[in-house]
Amino acid sequence: MKNSPSRFSPLGLLLLFTPCTQAHDNLPANWCMDPNTVPVVTANFNFAPEALENYRRANPGLEVPEENCDPVINRSCGIVDEWHYANEMSMAFCGGGGGGESSMVKSAIESDHPAPFVSSPTDFNSRDHHDAYRFRDGNLVGSCVICVSKLQPPTPDPVPQEPDKD
Length: 166
Hints:
Blueprint: H1 10-16, E1 37-47, H2 49-58, H3 82-94, H4 104-110, E2 115-120, H5 129-132, E3 140-149
């Protein structure tokens, strides 16, 4: 009898039987790209659909200019939809300023600004988010996250005390 490959990989079986409680973790432990850093939540947000609509009305010109469009970094060049405005509002709230390279990719690498991590509605993070996500899907809920070093800074040597001169 010939050895046939297993239909299930060990990793696949592990993922299949992972406890459901892990599905409720909002932030993956490996969110930071640098293995020497860990994600830290700096703030939380919960924007109602009305607040998102008000943000869109107050910021009509948030389009990425064609000359600043890098399709590798900013894959949404020219796409200005409800997802775009919700993403911009969450980045502005987190202090990243919004727009292109200063967003999640840069924050996850350089840890210079907190980046938004949206936990709901689920359509916001779906593969077809530009088509699926709408403000009316519910409050935009998430956290501002920054990557900080998990390495302890070196402890300085104590300053030697001068002996008493008595």
